[in-house]
Amino acid sequence: MEELINNADTFLVDVRSPAEVAEVAVPGAVNIPLDTVPANLEKFKEAKGAVVVFCRSGARSENAKNWLLQNGVKDVHNAGGYPAVLAVIN
């Protein structure tokens, strides 16, 4: 997962709410809250590389991952909670 997170082509997406992101932001991540993932499907499909999603604990990002896979996004990974992502970002 560390290699994926640090790959320049990876689309790193934080599916937490804007209020949660305001508390602790992850450098390089795009904030697309879980409830807006369907409306942003094209952004995910246009990603150059893998899509890596995360949230606070990994539950919402697992939901996002499963929805994206069911809707045609091929290379999607759940990185779990933001602390795990922050721990490996270069």
Describe the model.
The chain has 90 residues and is an alpha/beta fold. It is built from 5 helices and 4 strands; from the N terminus they run H-E-H-E-H-E-H-E-H. Strands 2-1-3-4 form a 4-stranded parallel sheet. Helix 2 links the parallel strand 1 (11-14) and strand 2 (30-31). The longest helix is centred in the last third of the chain and has 12 residues, at 59-70.
Kindly report the oligomeric state of this protein.
single chain
Strand content: 15-25%
How many runs of DSSP E, i.e. beta strands?
A: 4
Uncertain stretches: none
User: Describe the biggest sheet?
Assistant: 4 strands, parallel
Averaged pLDDT: 97
Radius of gyration: 12 Å
The helix fraction, in percent, is 25-40%
Taken in chain order, the helices and strands follow as HEHEHEHEH
Spatial sequence of strands, sheet with the most strands: 2-1-3-4
- Name the shape in a single word: globular
- How many angstroms separate the termini? 13 Å
- Backbone structural class: alpha/beta
Task: Describe the structure in brief.
The protein is built from five helices and four strands, in the order αβαβαβαβα. The protein has 90 residues and is α/β, with parallel strands linked by helices.
